[in-house]
Amino acid sequence: MHAYLLEFGNLLLRWLHVIAAIAWIGESIYFVMLDNSLRPPQRSAAKQRGVFGEMWAVHGGGFYHNQKYLTNPAELPDDLHWSYWKAYSTWLSGFALFAILYLRKPDVYLTNPSSPWAWAAALEPWQAAAAAVIFLLAGWVIYDQLCRRISPTMERDGLLSAAVGVMMVFVAYLSVQMFQGRAAFLLTGAVMATCMSANVLFWIIPGQRRMVAALKANVPPDPLDGMRGKQRSVHNTYFTLPVVFLMLSNHYSFTFTSPHAWIILSLFIFAGAAIRQYFVLRHLGKNQLAYPAVGVALLLVIAWLGAPARTMAPTASLASPSGTAGMQQVQAIIEARCVQCHAAKPTQPGFVSAPLGVVLETTDQIALHGAKIKETVASNYMPLGNLTGMTNAERATITNWSIPH
Ligand code: HEC
């Protein structure tokens, strides 16, 4: 019952998280589009009122006329629309989801016993959980320090972007060594998402509050507040596509179980940023196809790196048993190592139903999922965290098994 309630909580949180993220990212994409689509005001009255740019739009059966003032609107109504709860609720629901899945079961989802780094392979489950939380916090602190030190007055934003790119490659590399692949991808995405939310909480909103207070007190606002808010929201824009991929990567084990996982992860980040750049420029009226071309080229490299032949190579060379195993032999291994979780009624604590509906109790079911079984076993993804202690010989048997038709 306890496990069922957690499962149901997981469902509700995931629903909330996806909706909050859609609302947040949708609004963020909308405002970047709006900002880049502004044109100088047509009427002199608007110019005199200090309008910086305007955009006309038709939507939902009506016409909208947006006007942007930089820092000097003639009047400022009290019912200003602020945007922050979408960002905060996305982070809070995301962290809660991470906690009830990964932090609650670090031995299943976080620890990486096959890490090439001995100290990482030896992490106790609680240490891996603590390391994951520290990872998120450290990611924000380092990113924030890069922004403060490299481009405090926004004059070296190009260099800063390059530094943030290098930082993300480093985060990708470190997380793939320290944590299980699935968690590593998620955590890298969560580092970026944490920076995004923290940008809103610590810089963008406080800066806007100071600007509003200055306007109300009739003193000129500090232009740095506006510029810094812009700098951080530009970063947020380029983070969106990579973060969404990293959240979805959980469903595509070939990405995070690849021996080239950290490279795939880094390339996805750059592909997402390049594709986003195309749309940013597009709203400025520029149609620079080089950006999506770079994005697509990176995706093709990923497809090549993640191809099953390359993924299976390392484990297929394990001491391979002579001849191919029969169904009986494979079923015996699956009964010993997999049905704890992959059963209609799992016996593994914390599992209420077969993960992803994959039940492996009969030979028909095993044959049905044959290709996926081979793929996930060959890449060390299954058994999850090798909780059930599968041996290398058993792994080789399944990897070399030819699935009956
Ligand atoms: C500790 C529990 C556990 C054990 C033991 C386990 N699995 Fe899984 N398995 C999972 C979970 C959880 C998922 C779903 C992961 C996800 O959400 O992507 C999964 C998913 C799968 C999938 C679907 C993957 C996909 O991307 O569609 C296959 C196939 C699979 N497991 C095969 C096996 C095999 C074969 C074994 C035994 C060698 C095994 N599992 C042992 C928990 C387990």
TrEMBL record:
Organism: Pollutimonas subterranea
Keyword Chaperone assigned: no
Ranges for domain Urate oxidase N-terminal: 3-305
Transmembrane segment boundaries: 12-33, 87-105, 125-146, 158-176, 182-205, 237-254, 260-281, 288-307
Superkingdom as given in the UniProt entry: Bacteria
Name of this chain's protein: Urate oxidase N-terminal domain-containing protein
Keywords noted in UniProt: Membrane, Transmembrane, Transmembrane helix
